[in-house]
Amino acid sequence: MKKSIHTICVFCGSRVGAGETYTKVAKEMGKLLAKNNFKLVFGGTTIGLMGCIADAVLEHGGKVEGVIPQLLFPMEAPHPKINRLHITHSMHARKQKMYDLSDAFVALPGGLGTLDELFEILTWSQINLHQKPIGIINTEGYFDGIIQFLDHALKEEFLRPKHRQLLIKAQNPKEMINKLKRR
């Protein structure tokens, strides 16, 4: 029996990226999370796409929980308006807490931290630590290189077909929300 999805963790950048498209998608995702009664779990800060998505969820009446490690406080201010903030002692504890709070995971564009979070949660699923859905929103083809790499790893037999299928791909937030609702 599959567990229903109530809380979605979104991994995304501490920067907004080039152009306005990434910000627009983060705001759209936040709005759709709120409108579909999904609670957001995110990195807990006001900066970058993280701040954009949290602000959008709050603006549309949704609930938001942030998770931030103490060591980031000098660089990243905790979001003051979210419903709940969890402060952890390390980055590893942050990822564990985000996992514990969430029923599904979605990555928006981001840098090394976003990729680290995405691949760790995929690895946990691969080794059967969980069966929670994991997706990417491939804004402007941002994740094309990752998708190609995973297909290459599959072709070269470093990745099993069932593990390649763990990653749900969507082109936009509406498509991702619809796919998660069907899970």
Key traits:
183 residues, Rossmann fold, 7-stranded parallel sheet, 43% helix, 17% strand
Description:
This protein is 43% helix and 17% strand. With 183 residues, the chain is an alpha/beta fold. The chain has one domain (7-181): 3-Layer(aba) Sandwich (Rossmann fold), CATH 3.40.50. The chain has a 7-stranded parallel beta sheet, sandwiched between helices. Helix 1 runs parallel beside helix 2 (48-59). The longest helix has 15 residues, at 21-35. The mean pLDDT is 96.
Tally of alpha and pi helices: 7
Task: State the CATH architecture.
Answer: 3-Layer(aba) Sandwich
Lateral strand order in the biggest sheet: 4-3-2-1-5-6-7
End-to-end CA span: 11 Å
Q: How many separate structural domains?
A: 1
Rg, Å, rounded:
15 Å
What's the topology here?
Elements: E1 7-11, H1 21-35, E2 39-42, H2 48-59, E3 64-69, E4 84-88, H3 91-101, E5 104-107, H4 112-126, E6 134-137, H5 144-155, H6 161-164, E7 167-170, H7 173-181
Helix pairs in contact: 1-2
Brief summary:
By secondary structure, the chain is of the alpha/beta class.
